[in-house]
Amino acid sequence: MAVDAEKVRKAFGEHLELMRAKSQHWFFNGNSRWADNRIRKFLEYFSIPIDQENVIALMDTTLFHTAKEGYLFTTSGIVIKDLLYKLCYIDFNRVEQAEIVEEYDEKNYTTTVYARAHLKDGTDMRLPDYYIKSRALVRYINDAIQP
Question: How far is CA 43 from CA 74, 113, 133, 137, in A?
Fold first, then answer.
């Protein structure tokens, strides 16, 4: 069953302020020509076969806003090109659940905290979350995929 685009847009609106990292620049589709050009540039740079009307927003993580790295939020998933990561796509139709993983050392101190998606095919995907608040991203994904 495909995810509902309007439900995804609503979930994005509800979680946007929690996901925002203050140092990143956001471009919202349909907000301005400048924003639409940045989104188009990101789609073209990576040859992403997604229609621009299905894009909700782009969080550009580059220093000079070149739209060559960032998080592209769409009605069907999230395209992520994060620093030192390969381009990845989180298809909401393939995600069963997202969660925060906390790892501890022998003294029970937290050593690592990261976001992970459990996919319907039984595999797990670590979510690049260097520039975004992990817990808010997980909540957004879980709300977007709920029937």
Answer: 11, 30, 23, 21
Residue 17: what are its φ and ψ, rounded to 5°?
-65, -30
Signed CA dihedral, 91, 102, 136, 10: sign only: positive
Question: What is d(CA 52, CA 132) in angstroms, rounded to the nearest whole number?
Answer: 22
Strands (E), 7-86: 25-28, 55-60, 70-74, 77-81
- Cβ contact 128:138 at 8 Å: no
Segment 29-80, tens digit of pLDDT? 988 999 999 999 999 999 999 999 999 999 988 888 888 899 999 999 999 9
145 touches 92 (CB < 8 A): yes
Q: Which residues share a beta bridge with 83?
A: none
Q: What is the pTM of this model?
A: 0.88
Angle at 39 between CA 33 and CA 42, to 5 degrees: 140
What φ, ψ does residue 124 adopt, rounded to 5°? -115, 150
Helix axes 5-19, 134-145, angle to 10 degrees: 170
- Rounded distance, CA 8 to CA 38, Å? 22
